[in-house]
Write a structure and sequence with these properties.
The protein is mainly β and 115 residues long. 0% of the residues lie in helices and 57% in strands. It is globular.
Length: 115
């Protein structure tokens, strides 16, 4: 059974930085995708950033040049460095692992950006 555990959420002022981390445990295949999604109140869950096991990244336009996703394949961890935070970044952030053929989600961590 695969489990994802997130950490690092909290309150940050606009313009500040925050770092989210996610650790995956269980049977993790060498080739997989890991990523971060977020869901704000009253909105659908949306992609923030994803990274393949080969290091290819993809970002939502709204976070490009502000957020950086990275991973450690040896430790099965993925991180999201959030810089220049904006109030519209406020949401619950979820870690996601695509470990073919299944998708796994973390429990979510709240990020609140105050103006």
């Amino acid at each position: 059974q695969v489990q994802l555990v997130e950490s690092g959420g909290g309150l940050v002022q606009a313009g500040g930085s925050l770092r989210l981390s996610c650790a995956a445990s269980g049977t993790i295949f060498r080739i997989n995708n890991m990523g971060w999604y977020r869901q704000a109140p009253g909105k659908q869950r949306e992609l923030v950033a994803i990274i393949t096991s080969g290091g290819t990244t993809n970002y939502a336009d709204s976070v490009k040049d502000r957020f950086t996703i990275s991973r450690d394949n040896a430790k099965n961890t993925v991180s999201l460095q959030m810089n220049s935070a904006k109030p519209e970044d406020t949401a619950i952030y979820y870690c996601r692992l695509f470990n073919a053929p299944k998708v796994y989600w973390g429990q979510g961590t709240q990020v609140t950006v105050s103006s």
